[in-house]
Specification:
Elements: H1 3-16, H2 29-45, H3 70-82, H4 86-111, H5 114-126, H6 128-133, H7 140-160, H8 163-179, H9 187-198, H10 206-233, H11 256-271, H12 273-284, H13 295-309, H14 311-316, H15 325-339, H16 353-378, H17 386-397, E1 403-407, H18 413-418, E2 421-425, H19 432-441, E3 443-449, H20 457-466, E4 468-472, E5 476-480
Parallel strand pairs: 1-2, 1-3
Antiparallel strand pairs: 3-5, 4-5
Helix pairs in contact: 1-4, 1-5, 2-3, 4-5, 4-7, 5-15, 7-8, 7-9, 8-10, 9-13, 11-12, 12-15, 12-16, 13-15
């Protein structure tokens, strides 16, 4: 490893260690809480990786239809050695993100140049949502790392024809698709690579047939098993809920607001920063130097197809666009590499001054705008928020084996942080029928933040009258059924 990429990795690590010991919470805390709860339940129950469990289980065993949970299972192994602490989940994410940065460097260096590879790694390190989501309790870093190395080893196989590279690529691509099913879109850039080498013979190459068979067999086997878990407990993350949640809501594609929210708000402002987004567009028009460079074009195309297949998912969750930052960083890097040498920042000879001024301005703006966006996300990580006060009181006042109703916006974070299990209800679901039913099933307590009753004060009055007070403060409450 040369000193330049080592410096980038060290910088990447330093940035991501901020707030590393912060408990689960903040931006997308519901997703973090579900992932952390699965890791906690692996640790506490000693169950197999084949049986992930959530806290919003009610009286069921908690088995849930979900993606393959290798990330929380890996965290639970650390719990077995060092004890349960949320920062182990964050540290595993950070570690995988560092491998991603280095993998991107290897891939771009192999296809384009050393200078472009260093710029791509640096940009990828600095993008605001890359920073944020690579240090939270979520599996995104795992999927991104597997995606990058899956492509890198596949490229190595097409060039050197060593079977071990194909097997490594197969393993990484399979893991990427198991961790996040949409990662199957990686098939398009992989198909480009193999087509460049074998043309139409690719369809009869036994190695390709083997790889495709292994990937789809493993993915199909896991999701068949995962669905069987939901039939036992009725619990699911709604992976296959087409036309209602993530997939297939094609009516969104005819609305201008959809394109504004996805391409300008999410990709342009949140992910790349506006300065980076301009350079990304610029980089698309820089001439490709070799036959493999179009790999990153096909990566972008594959991701755009994913957006159009799952438009609602991309509207609701900005972390769904994280894979886009991989090829986007390369196109941004191509602009920097054309005009500047890394890391001296000396202009490449023969470059025009106006273009150089724009590039230097973007180099200043990208870190600044990244910091502004990152700071906004970090404002959600406030240890003095009512969430942490509520769950601290719940751990003290509610017996460990008591089942709890948590009132929120379908957010399981209260259950996770209070180390209790039970149900999650939205405010409109608070009624006599549901309370009576859940009390009959074993619910003993109700807790929540009062902000969820802001537009339904009559619901809170009903709840308070139906229960006996344990704690009723300005911002949160704990009641006994």
């Amino acid at each position: 490893m040369n000193n330049k990429i080592a410096i980038i990795l060290y910088l990447s690590l330093l940035i991501r260690l901020y707030h590393i010991s912060f408990p689960v919470g903040g931006w997308h805390e519901w997703r973090q809480a579900d992932t952390a709860a699965i890791a906690k339940n692996f640790y506490e129950s000693g169950s197999s990786i084949l049986y992930p469990q959530v806290d919003w289980r009610g009286t069921t065993p908690g088995y849930v239809e979900s993606e393959f949970q290798i990330y929380p299972y890996s965290v639970s192994l650390l719990y077995n050695v060092f004890g349960m602490h949320d920062y182990f989940g964050r540290l595993v994410s950070v570690l995988f993100s560092l491998f991603s940065v280095y993998g991107l460097y290897l891939l771009v260096r192999k296809i384009i140049s050393e200078n472009t590879a260093l710029w791509a790694s640096f940009i990828y390190t600095m993008l605001p949502l890359n920073i944020y989501f690579s240090r939270v309790f979520m599996p995104e870093s795992t999927m991104l790392m597997c995606s990058i190395y899956g492509i890198y080893f596949f490229l190595k196989w097409t060039e050197e024809n060593y079977f071990r590279y194909l097997m490594l690529s197969t393993a990484f691509i399979t893991l990427a698709a198991l961790v996040k099913l949409p990662a199957l879109y990686l098939g398009l850039p992989l198909a480009f690579l193999v087509f460049k080498k074998y043309r139409w013979k690719m369809f009869i190459k036994w190695e390709i047939i083997l790889m495709v068979s292994v990937v789809f067999s493993c993915v199909a086997a896991w999701y068949y098993h995962a669905h069987s878990l939901s039939e036992i407990t009725g619990l699911s993350f709604n992976i296959w809920n087409a036309g209602n949640d993530k997939w297939g809501m094609t009516d969104l594609l005819i609305k201008p607001k959809f394109y504004n929210d996805i391409f300008l708000r999410n990709l342009g402002e949140r992910h790349l920063t506006y300065a980076g987004f301009v350079l990304f567009i610029w980089g698309l028009f820089i001439k490709r130097q070799n036959r493999y460079e179009m790999l990153f074009d096909f990566y972008v195309i594959a991701f755009l197809i994913f957006i159009f297949i799952a438009p609602q998912a991309h509207l609701e969750q900005d972390y769904y666009q994280l894979p886009f930052n991989i090829p986007a960083s390369v196109f941004i890097a191509k602009v920097f590499s054309k005009y500047l040498n890394f890391p001296s920042l000396k202009p490449v000879s023969g470059q025009k001054k106006p273009a150089l001024i724009i590039v230097l301005s973007a180099l200043l703006l990208i870190p600044v705008l990244s910091f502004v966006r990152y700071y906004r996300f970090m404002e959600y990580e406030d240890i003095n928020s009512p969430l942490y006060k509520l769950t601290a009181d719940a751990r003290t006042m509610i017996p460990e084996d008591s089942l709890v109703i948590s009132v929120s916006d379908n957010n399981p974070v209260n259950l996770y942080l209070s180390r209790r299990k039970g149900w999650v209800l939205c405010t409109p679901q608070i009624n006599a029928e549901n309370l009576s039913r859940l009390k009959h099933e074993g619910a003993k307590f109700v807790m929540g933040e009062k902000k969820y009753f802001k537009d339904n004060l009559e619901k809170f009055v009903f709840l308070r009258n139906a229960c006996s007070d344990i704690l009723d403060l300005n911002e949160y409450f704990i009641f006994r059924l």
